[in-house]
Amino acid sequence: MGLHDHYVASLKGTILCALEDARIVDISHSVRPFDIGEAAYHVRSSFRDFPAGTVHVIGVDSEPVINFGGSDGSFPAVMLYDGHYFISCDNGFFGAFLGENRPELFWRIEDVLSDENLFKFPTKNVLLKAAIRILNGDDPAKFAVASKSYKSALIPMALTETNLIKGYVIHIDNYGNAITNIDRSLFYRFGEDTPFIIYFKKKDYYIDVISGAYNEVSQGEKVALFTENDLLEIAINRGANGSTGGAEQLFGLRVNDMIRVEFTPKGSRTTIDSLF
Predict the structure, then answer these.
(1) Among 208, 205, 181, which residue's Cα sits nearest to residue 262?
(2) CATH code (residue 48)
(3) 73 and 125, same domain (yes or no)
(4) pLDDT at 271
(5) Which of 19, 180, 267, 276 is 20 to 30 A off residue 25, Cα-Cα?
(6) Apex CA 38: angle with CA 67 and CA 228, to 5°?
(7) Looking at the DSSP assignment, which residues form a beta bridge with residue 172?
(8) How many domains does the chain have?
(9) pLDDT at 134 > cutoff 70
(10) Residue 250 to residues 79, 142, 155, 221, 222: CA-CA distances in angstroms?
(11) What percent of the chain shows pLDDT beyond 90?
(12) pTM for this entry
């Protein structure tokens, strides 16, 4: 929703009117409009830093889509996962957030047709109302219907081929660092000592070592490392957008750009020429 308009203030005011002692933490208000994949990335990267029982409200693409006589609409929903509650419209967020994991419990809020005014600001009038009920001690089963199915947004997945990983940039952070969807476990599936080259944007742009920290390379040099959440990141040491330039500016990296990691296990090259 950004911070230019009154929307975020209205949400916080609604919470404080109902729960004056509520502790409100902003994860981000800069998700691209309707970008479920980016919303899932931010929440997945940060929710474990909050105490168990936290209620996370995801107000991205939050207007319900109701298909009469069917179950293919996007209903508001509540998910319990790893001791946390997540409230969002079932528009693909839950599947994108979970990946291969499964929730402990999942409910759909089906009683959303009683007042057409709810649809004018659904994050406030539907999602926050559910959050407030949970924070007041209500079991979601009192106001929602248990369900075993939820949607998953179509987001790029990292794929493996013979001696190759094809991944994608999924986020550019405030420094211009490019975070990919290649996680540490997938990267090292080919062996921790297997030589590799990470190619990005152009064949001339490559990195062949994983660093443990930015300062393991000289200032202004390109660096690859794994984030706190074990995702492969491509960056410029002490580079940043608006300053000396981060990976986004200097390499022209954008969200959804492909990142190739080519591995050379022992015996995988049969001739000298095939190494080049």
Answers:
(1) 208
(2) 3.40.50.10790
(3) yes
(4) 43
(5) 180
(6) 140
(7) 178
(8) 2
(9) yes
(10) 40, 53, 26, 11, 10
(11) 74
(12) 0.88
